[in-house]
Amino acid sequence: KIYQARISRLTQTDRSLQMNVSALQQANKILETRMTLVNNSLVRANVNLDTVVSFLALTRRNLEMTESMVQTLRTNFFALNSELSRTKAHSAVLEGNLTSTWNYLRPLIN
Q1: Each residue's pLDDT tens digit, 10-55
Q2: What is the DSSP string of the chain?
């Protein structure tokens, strides 16, 4: 009887251990699936980060080009402003010359 009681307890323990092993195997499969999903998400996130880094590098180059263009535009603006001042001065001289010429010619025409 003692041996039968021990065998019965060992059998129950064996069944319990088998159920625990089965539950652990199922939990392991679930964890493997979740890890695969997380890994896939990390791969996508890494691709997205690479895209963002590339986009930021492109944006930086565009900003540098824009800054260069702004400098060129500023230089051209100052050159045009200077040219406008010279043109105004020449226009004033021409106006004076035309007035003088007109004042000289008017008595001759009349």
Answers
A1: 999 999 999 999 999 999 999 999 999 999 999 999 999 999 999 9
A2: -HHHHHHHHHHHHHHHHHHHHHHHHHHHHHHHHHHHHHHHHHHHHHHHHHHHHHHHHHHHHHHHHHHHHHHHHHHHHHHHHHHHHHHHHHHHHHHHHHHHHHHHHHHHH-
Q: CA 106 to CA 27: how far, in whole Å?
A: 112
The single residue listed with the structure tokens 């035309």 is 98
| Residue from 42, 62, 61, 38 nearest 50 by CA | 42
pTM for the full predicted model: 0.54
Please tell me the distance from the alpha carbon of residue 45 to that of residue 41, in angstroms, as a whole number: 6
Task: State the DSSP code for 1.
Answer: -
